[in-house]
Amino acid sequence: MSFPRPELKYRVRRGVALVGAGVVVLAIAGWLGPVPTVPVQGDVLGPDGRTRAEYVDFAAGQLEQLRQDSTGPRDSTEQRDPQSRFALVTFAHPLDAQQASAALRPLQRVNAVVVGGAGPVPVPEPVAGRERAEVFDTALGRLTAAMGGAGTPGISSVVVYAPPAQLEQVAKHALVAAVEPGLADAVWGNFAVRPQVG
Q: What are the TM regions of this chain, as residue ranges (predicted)?
């Protein structure tokens, strides 16, 4: 009985070790998997580099265009667009929970509050028997706690979901500086919100 040469035995062991290492690397790569991609956020609500005055004019123009699209004359090429959509409601100055709730009373849905230049903070709709102001108070309380209790911040804007008629109604409120409607096909989480800073 003859034994294989020592060099062959060494080569076989080295080959098995390399194949094993390759399998381990592939298994780890498969386990970690590809990193999920962030959806492209091409749609933006907010000033996006405009001054406050420019933004107020821009938002008013967008709201007027929406009004014309949803109530204007129709012909074979023009469609009315009365459906609900997301919009950014910017207040004349930061409001407390009661003031914001009163200004937004005509709206059926408030999705998020914006405090200062921070990103939107999602808020639920109030449960039966509760007021929207209570939901806002809870959100502001959490923000205050997160900021180390350095005073209660005011709500500078909100992201809402409403039909054009309700958006127009809110735009007429004295405490509302601008209502910028988003696109009709916008999906929550797939558009950016850039609130007015300062």
A: 12-32
